[in-house]
Design brief:
Layout (H helix, E strand, L loop, with lengths): L2 H15 L15 E5 L6 H17 L3 E5 L6 H8 L7 E5 L1 H10 L11 E10 L1 E6 L7 H9 L5 E4 L5 H13 L4 E4 L3 H9 L5 E5 H9 L3 E7 L23 E8 L4 H15 L2 H9 L2 E3 L4 H22 L5
Parallel strand pairs: 1-2, 1-3, 6-7
Antiparallel strand pairs: 3-10, 4-10, 4-11, 5-8, 5-9
Helix pairs in contact: 2-9, 4-11, 6-11
């Protein structure tokens, strides 16, 4: 073999073994961006992600495509994001469960929801609705408290152990001193179906599921956990009904930790502009989400504060998923 051939071969091997040069942030994005969602296709979180991917892709001049990876209440897909390259080409939309409640109830969670992510910014806030069948004897929190204090057993359903719905019910019990028995369901569709069938009389539902059922008279709403929802503006919040709870239940966008600040800033700016679009805001409202952009660093600090608060709620209620 000629010397020149050997030299060229060695250079080729060295080149292949060398890490690729980091992309110039000024050129970002130069290829498609993956939005990895820890939700089933067609679910609320999936719809939110697809809506933002479409608008942000147009603003950034690149396609943002969707990958759904479900499992372990959203923590499986979220872990995949945490361990993805931090080049700005993997992003996700996380809810309360994946980034605030999971750290509060999973003692061996495979990711740190603060340290393992770059927070791009808040998407918006939503509420959880406390709903009941039309024949349930209470119509608001005051009447529910009176019912529970009569000594009659009160059951409520949520869409799973550790769900936002269970936490909202636990907050209500801790703040009012009443007792209710938790009946966890395997998913929100099953829970809503059993409510409509009269198999359970009281439950917590996400506002997107609850809104059409309350508006058409199939169910009645007793209270909103979180803020009063624009989707059901006549339903008073916990705080308005005397329960001292006013924390926002938020959705936010994340990328793996260590994304270059100029790239994170481009994503953040695109998210902010997308949330300012009238069509996007209206579609989010249809899902029960009030668009409300908050910068990434500020949202990260809010998450850290909320994790500590919800950990105490979980400890007092004995909520833990092993």
């Amino acid at each position: 073999m000629k010397l020149s051939t050997v030299t060229l071969s060695l250079l080729a091997l060295l080149s292949a073994a060398s890490p690729a040069r980091a992309e110039d942030p000024a050129a970002y994005p130069s290829r498609k961006i993956r939005m990895l969602l820890p939700y089933a296709a067609g679910g609320g979180g999936d719809v939110v992600g697809r809506l933002l991917a479409d608008k942000m892709g147009k603003l950034l001049g690149q396609t943002i495509y969707i990958e759904n990876h479900t499992g372990a209440a959203g923590t499986l897909g979220t872990q995949m994001v945490a361990t993805s390259p931090n080049d700005g080409y993997t992003i996700t939309v996380g809810g309360m469960t994946t980034h605030v409640l999971a750290p509060a109830i999973y003692p061996k969670l495979s990711y740190d929801s603060i340290k393992d992510f770059t927070t791009i910014g808040r998407v918006g806030t939503s509420s959880i609705m406390l709903v009941a069948t039309k024949t349930f004897p209470a119509n608001d929190i005051k009447e529910l408290i009176a019912l529970a204090k009569k000594g009659e057993p009160v059951q409520y359903g949520s869409w799973g152990v550790g769900s936002t719905g269970q936490f909202c019910a636990e907050i209500l019990m801790q703040q009012t001193g009443i007792k209710m028995d938790h009946v966890p369901f395997n998913g929100i569709a099953k829970l809503a179906g059993d409510l409509l069938g009269g198999h359970i009389s009281l439950a917590t539902l996400d506002v997107a599921t609850a809104t059409p059922l309350v508006k058409d008279g199939s169910l009645k709403a007793l209270a909103a956990c979180g803020e009063r929802s624009p989707s059901l503006p006549d339903i008073a919040s916990y705080k308005e009904q005397g329960v001292p709870f006013d924390r926002s239940l938020s959705w936010a966008m994340y990328a793996p930790a260590g994304v270059a600040p100029p790239i994170a800033q481009k994503l953040s700016a695109a998210l902010k502009d997308a949330l300012g679009d009238t069509v996007v805001k209206e579609k989010l409202l249809g899902l029960g989400i009030t668009a409300h952009f908050v910068p990434g660093n500020e949202q990260r600090d809010i998450n850290a504060r909320d994790i500590a608060a919800w950990k105490q709620v979980a400890k007092d209620a004995g909520i833990e998923v092993k």
